[in-house]
TrEMBL record:
<comment type="function">
    <text>S-adenosyl-L-methionine-dependent guanine N(1)-methyltransferase that catalyzes the formation of N(1)-methylguanine at position 9 (m1G9) in tRNAs. Probably not able to catalyze formation of N(1)-methyladenine at position 9 (m1A9) in tRNAs.</text>
</comment>
<feature type="region of interest" description="Disordered">
    <location>
        <begin position="73"/>
        <end position="100"/>
    </location>
</feature>
<dbReference type="GO" id="GO:0052905">
    <property type="term" value="F:tRNA (guanosine(9)-N1)-methyltransferase activity"/>
</dbReference>
<dbReference type="InterPro" id="IPR028564">
    <property type="entry name" value="MT_TRM10-typ"/>
</dbReference>
<feature type="compositionally biased region" description="Acidic residues">
    <location>
        <begin position="297"/>
        <end position="308"/>
    </location>
</feature>
<dbReference type="GO" id="GO:0005829">
    <property type="term" value="C:cytosol"/>
</dbReference>
<feature type="active site" description="Proton acceptor">
    <location>
        <position position="217"/>
    </location>
</feature>
<protein>
    <recommendedName>
        <fullName>tRNA methyltransferase 10 homolog A</fullName>
        <ecNumber>2.1.1.221</ecNumber>
    </recommendedName>
</protein>
<feature type="domain" description="SAM-dependent MTase TRM10-type">
    <location>
        <begin position="95"/>
        <end position="286"/>
    </location>
</feature>
<dbReference type="GO" id="GO:0000049">
    <property type="term" value="F:tRNA binding"/>
</dbReference>
<dbReference type="InterPro" id="IPR016653">
    <property type="entry name" value="TRM10/TRM10A"/>
</dbReference>
<dbReference type="InterPro" id="IPR038459">
    <property type="entry name" value="MT_TRM10-typ_sf"/>
</dbReference>
<dbReference type="GO" id="GO:0002939">
    <property type="term" value="P:tRNA N1-guanine methylation"/>
</dbReference>
<dbReference type="InterPro" id="IPR007356">
    <property type="entry name" value="tRNA_m1G_MeTrfase_euk"/>
</dbReference>
<keyword id="KW-0949">S-adenosyl-L-methionine</keyword>
<keyword id="KW-0489">Methyltransferase</keyword>
<dbReference type="GO" id="GO:0005654">
    <property type="term" value="C:nucleoplasm"/>
</dbReference>
């Protein structure tokens, strides 16, 4: 019995040792990741490898960008030092960007009359919006910016501007007015620019307000701006286009073309230079006296000028002529029939 009691603690100690060894082996198995027949990696080793890989990846991506940025800064600083050295030596600095003189604003007022909103389809309103954007851009970069007015501003045009170009509310030096132009400006100062007027404009009076009809109508409403000027009893005139330019397409110009021509005239003080600054290689325009070159001109028009519609109308007219000609040929009796008769 004594021997049995003495053997029991020894058995218990051995069982505890076996249990501890099993727990340690289980921990080792949890800490290692089996990779098939290859060596096993501990979690610590795996984290270290991932950390090293991430640091190398960051260096590969970030360092080149940083170096490029640093080189740009160095080149910029070098150009700045060169300009300063040339300025000190009194030499004229010639850069890629042309030197721009400070603008001298003109007192002339240019008004776009947007009261024809209900006469246009939505696609035409969008075209007018693009033309107005061009007018604004040109007025911002010209040497003699005019006083720019958009009157009767509302309806479809305002909706399109709110949807497509919400930044219009931040436009500088533009007067947006929901009222009609003759309600906010003096009638004696107004001159409506319309190609149907018998009066030809020879000079620009910078005390006047020149009105441009904001209408893209595909020639569906001919003479409507002239009728509006007569109805209001205000002065009207047309640009001296026929005195300087011959074109092989329609004489009516887009809103932005009229706007740009007036800006060019304020800078150059010459109508012919102003016309060909804006109309160069458009509509096949050539100076008066060089009509023999009219056919050689480029007949390409801006997308704003609805060339697709004009071509469609011309095609329809030619098709109708061909159709009528075929009918006439059908009704004509043959020569044999005439001889028999």
């Amino acid at each position: 019995m004594a021997t049995d009691l003495a053997d029991k603690p020894a058995v218990q100690e051995s069982s505890h040792k076996c249990a501890n060894s099993e727990n340690e082996s289980a921990k080792d198995e949890n800490e290692t990741v089996q990779t098939g027949e290859t060596e096993t990696l501990s979690k610590r080793q795996k984290k270290r490898l991932l950390k090293n890989f991430a640091s190398k990846l960051c260096k590969a991506l970030i360092v080149p960008c940083f170096m490029k940025r640093q080189k740009r800064k160095e080149r910029k600083q070098q150009r700045k030092l060169e300009r300063q050295a040339q300025a000190e030596d009194g030499a004229e600095w010639t850069a890629k960007k042309r030197l721009r003189r400070s603008p001298e604003p003109s007192s002339l007022r240019l008004v776009i009359d947007c009261s024809f909103d209900n006469l246009m389809l939505l696609k035409d309103v969008k075209k007018l919006h693009k033309q107005i954007q061009r007018c604004y851009a040109e007025n911002r970069r010209t040497l003699h910016p005019v006083q720019f007015y958009l009157t009767s501003h509302g309806g479809q045009l305002k909706q399109v501007m709110d949807e497509i170009n919400k930044g219009w509310v931040n436009w500088k030096d533009v007067h947006f007015r929901p009222d009609a132009f003759h309600e906010i400006l003096k009638e004696e100062d107004l001159v409506y620019l319309t190609s149907d007027s018998p009066h030809v404009l020879q000079e620009l009076d910078e005390a006047k307000a020149y009105v441009i009809g904001g209408l893209v109508d595909h020639n569906h409403h001919k003479g409507i701006t002239f009728d509006r000027a007569q109805e209001l009893g205000i002065a009207h005139a047309q640009l001296p286009l026929g005195s300087f330019v011959k074109m092989n397409s329609r004489k009516v110009l887009a809103v932005n073309h009229v706007f740009e021509i007036i800006l060019a005239f304020l800078e150059k003080r010459d109508w012919q230079d102003a016309f060909f600054t804006v109309l160069a290689q458009r509509k096949g325009a050539v100076p008066v006296g060089q009509e023999n070159k009219l056919g050689e001109g480029n007949d390409e028009e801006d997308s704003d000028e609805d060339s697709d519609t004009e071509h469609l109308i011309s095609e329809k007219s030619t098709d109708s002529k061909d159709h009528l000609g075929s009918k006439e040929e059908e009704h004509k009796p043959d020569s044999s029939e005439q001889n028999a008769a």
